[in-house]
Amino acid sequence: MQLRYAFRVYPDAGQRIALARAFGCARVVFNDAVRAREGARKAGRPFPTVAELSRKLITEAKRTAERSWLGEVSAVVLQQSLRDAEAAYRAFFASLKGIRMGPKVREPRFKSRKDARQSVRYTANARWSITDGGRLCLPKIGAVKVKWSRTLPSTPSSVTVIKDAAGRYFASFVVDTDPAVDGARMPTTDRTVGIDLGLTHFAVLSDGTKIGSPRFLRRAEKKLKKAQRELSQKQKGSKNRDKARLKVARAHAKVADARREFHHQLSTRLISENQGIAVEDLSVAGLARTRLAKSVHDAGWSSFVGMLKYKAERYGRALVTIGRFEPTSQTCSSCGVKDGPKPLNVREWTCSTCGAVHDRDHNAAINVRQAAGLAASACGAPVRPGAIPAQREETGSHGFPTDARAA
Fold it and tell me: For the whole model, what pTM was predicted?
């Protein structure tokens, strides 16, 4: 399977200028492609193909005085920007036809130089390389210093250089992993577990383990409010406002990084210790419309479950998702009798039929495991056929790359 490995890079002053030039050229080509397709749509003409756009917006545009500076960056960067525009339109039309799963996708919009995230992608034909000294050598950029936090499992097929809102630079590599090597790293076990996600505790496991909720955003809220207040007092367009904006962005990045690291460590631990894992399909979008919205977003359940999915696929584990309407908190895990709904402030209850005393979250975790068809022990055999697939596509120019951490 394909995974993305992200590393922090530290370009020098000249390389930052060259990267800014590459970001700008890629953005202009993307916007020109959107403008060309919108113009064709309004005129009632067929949409131009990628080959036509490449010839007109890159090859011919370089010969004009208005777009001659496109030749200052790698042509691969510009071609990949066109591919991003094409992928965005394919996703939009698939969403309109109902082919694409998930929420509706809007039509592609123009990019701005003020966007919080800028990126360019280099494929193998761009002839980028990693030097013997561990630097990332990019065409027309130079050898950029990289902070290698782990070893790449195989030769990358592409690299995307990203600048985030906090002004940090990252290199995101797309690599293919070896199933045999991954399987050897995670030997088969006979344990299974059910997970009940919540706010009081981030997760309660069916074996009784309770994992506290770090509440990263809540803990940093005072600092974030102060930074945001200082930003609001700065004059728009001033250098001091730019400094204050960076301060806010870095504070938010610190919270996001801490949350991501917590999710990675916990998901890797659960995958390594259990052959089968069961979780509940929570309606995060629905919960985010309640008074608990900030706490729900702070927990980051969707990100955590997404990590469980691709790690289960990678290491040959089984991940089973049960329906969100399964009455896990209302059913006695001992006798199976449904004892009715209970308000959230009831954390412990006694079954009216068998008299068993239950911790609300622990009982729910046991019911999640039982509803998924997982026994307490898998006896070394696959607990359920057909683990949920986790497609890890090549990173593009939309959204921050999910760091597929090596366990």
Answer: 0.85
What pairing do the DSSP bridges indicate for beta strands 136-138 and 142-147? Answer: antiparallel
**Exposure of 23 by Cβ count < 10 A (0-12 exposed, 13-18 middle, 19+ buried)?**
buried
Is there a contact between 267 and 312 (Cβ–Cβ < 8 Å)? no
What is the Cβ-side half-sphere exposure of residue 32, based on CA atoms within 13 angstroms? 24
Dihedral sign computed on CA atoms, order 382, 388, 394, 397: negative
Residue 61 above 90 pLDDT? yes
Residue 285: pLDDT band (50, 70, 90) is confident
CA distance 404 to 37: 34
> Is 196 an active-site residue?
yes
Q: Is 191 exposed, middle or buried (0-12, 13-18, 19+ CB in 10 A)?
A: middle
Phi, psi (degrees; rounded to nearest 5) at 348: -145, 140
The residue from 164, 182, 280, 339 that is catalytic is 280
- Exactly one of 182, 339, 361, 403 is catalytic; name it: 361
380: tokens are 């070394």
